[in-house]
DNA sequence: CTGGAGATACTCT
DNA sequence: GAGTATCTCCAGG
């Protein structure tokens, strides 16, 4: 029997924990994006942990900048960055205020508002691909730098909220190396996903891009 | 169907 | 110059 997803907001204390604990616990949770078109709801199926200043793979590794400032703030807020000159990716900030760990949201299943997501994801060949990959996820949910710093735990009128949903049982959680992370940061098995879920993105090892001719 | 090459063009070192 | 990525095009099974 399938439990009805819990629509209760996740409390800020959920994010004020070690980032690896939060990352695993986020699988199966619901992210609700409120747009003028109506809500889009995503069930998280794949995430990656980034452990702030201790982690060579993290944007926070070399300290605060104009881009990553939100990572150093309080937990439960959204860190959105722009990458490769084209794409946005979103993270949820973890740990106490002043630390800089975060969880990158890599993939999920659109459970509400697929029609809206399809308008921005014209290259998706089916609904499993709407949010299969971190930049695809952000595009499907219409997330960009304007939402950087949004409090996902706030009650009331917010563009982005995270709800309890249905946590994934521990025996259904898989983990492995992080995707596309360069250098020593790639060795950590800090990518977590839901076993056998068709919306999880394929693993790709980091490959340095060839220089333009 | 799978996988690689090239393009994209912002942010930080 | 390299990066928490994705798209289209094309060669090869």
Write up what this structure looks like:
This protein is α+β, with helices and mostly antiparallel strands. It has one domain (6-194): 3-methyladenine DNA Glycosylase, Chain A (Roll), CATH 3.10.300.10. It contains four helices and nine strands; from the N terminus they run βααβββββααβββ. It has helices at residues 12-15, 19-26, 114-120, 134-140, and strands at 6-9, 30-35, 38-51, 78-83, 87-94, 101-112, 160-165, 173-176, 191-194. Strands 1, 2, 3, 4, 5, 6, 7, 8 and 9 form a nine-stranded antiparallel β-sheet that branches. The longest helix is centred in the first third of the chain and has 8 residues, at 19-26. It binds a DNA duplex (13 and 13 nucleotides) through strand 4, strand 5 and helix 4.
In short:
By secondary structure, the protein is α+β, with helices and mostly antiparallel strands. It has helices at residues 12-15, 19-26, 114-120, 134-140, and strands at residues 6-9, 30-35, 38-51, 78-83, 87-94, 101-112, 160-165, 173-176, 191-194.
Tell me the number of helical segments per DSSP (H or I, 4 or more residues long): 4
CATH superfamily: Methylpurine-DNA glycosylase (MPG)
What's the CATH topology name?
Answer: 3-methyladenine DNA Glycosylase, Chain A
Outline, from the CA principal axes?
globular
Largest sheet: 9 strands, antiparallel
* Topology order in helix (H) and strand (E) letters: EHHEEEEEHHEEE
Low-confidence stretches: none
Radius of gyration: 16 Å
GO biological process, one term: base-excision repair
Family: Belongs to the DNA glycosylase MPG family.
Keywords: DNA damage, DNA repair, Glycosidase, Hydrolase
Enzyme class: hydrolase
């Amino acid at each position: 029997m399938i439990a009805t997803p819990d629509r209760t907001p996740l409390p800020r204390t959920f994010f004020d924990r070690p980032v690896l604990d939060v990352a695993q616990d986020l699988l199966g949770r619901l992210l609700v994006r409120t747009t003028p078109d109506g809500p889009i709801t995503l069930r998280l199926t794949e995430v990656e942990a980034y452990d702030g200043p201790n982690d060579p793979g993290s944007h926070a590794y070399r300290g605060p900048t104009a881009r990553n400032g939100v990572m150093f703030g309080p937990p439960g807020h959204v860190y959105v960055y722009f990458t490769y000159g084209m794409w946005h990716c979103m993270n949820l900030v973890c740990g106490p205020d002043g630390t800089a760990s975060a969880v990158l949201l890599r993939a999920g299943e659109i459970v509400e508002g697929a029609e809206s997501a399809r308008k921005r994801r014209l290259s998706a060949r089916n609904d499993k691909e709407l949010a299969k990959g971190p930049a695809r996820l952000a595009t499907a949910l219409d997330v960009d730098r304007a939402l950087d710093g949004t409090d996902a735990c706030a009650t009331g009128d917010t563009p982005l909220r995270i709800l309890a949903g249905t946590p994934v049982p521990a025996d259904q959680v898989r983990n492995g190396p992080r995707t596309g992370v360069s250098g020593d940061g790639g060795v950590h098995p800090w990518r977590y996903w839901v076993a056998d879920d068709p919306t999880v993105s394929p693993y790709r090892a980091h490959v340095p891009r060839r220089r333009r001719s």
